[in-house]
Design brief:
This protein is an alpha+beta fold. It has a single domain, classed as YaeB-like fold (2-Layer Sandwich), CATH 3.30.2310.20. It has four helices and five strands. The chain has a five-stranded mixed sheet with strand order 1-5-4-3-2. Strand 4 and strand 5 form a beta hairpin. The model has no long low-confidence stretch (mean pLDDT 85).
Length: 122
């Protein structure tokens, strides 16, 4: 299966705001976690959580999660598996330097799904 990593413009801006040393450590650790995602998803998902579960119309399930990269830094990401094209996509959406509150998480998830043509169910 082909594996792709994409980064949103918001993620890139958030990354640039991190101090240089923290950015280097963050990038290294994130790379390790993405490698774990490709090879052992069960182990990878021990580093993730969702403050709330976003609801999509038509019984679709949101693939937006929060990844603990360090005790301080969290990454909002989405994963999407396309069996037709045999592709697994890992989308880096935002970086937060604090635990996400429900509203922060839902706003970022809503922005991601809206960019893909879907609205969250309120």
């Amino acid at each position: 299966m082909k594996f792709e990593v994409e980064a949103s413009a918001e993620y890139k801006r958030d990354l640039e705001r991190l101090p240089r040393l923290e950015r280097s450590n963050f990038t290294r650790r994130l790379g390790q976690l993405i490698h774990t995602f490709k090879n052992d998803r069960k182990a990878f998902f021990t580093h993730t959580y969702r403050p709330v579960k976003p609801h999509l119309p038509g019984n679709f399930t949101s693939t937006v999660w929060v990844l603990r990269v360090s005790p301080k830094v969290r990454v909002l990401f989405a994963d999407d598996e396309d069996p037709l094209f045999e592709t697994l996509k890992f989308s880096l959406l935002r970086i937060f330097d604090h635990d996400l509150r429900n509203g922060d998480f839902l706003k970022a998830a809503e922005d991601f799904h809206r960019s893909n043509g879907m609205e969250l169910v309120k």
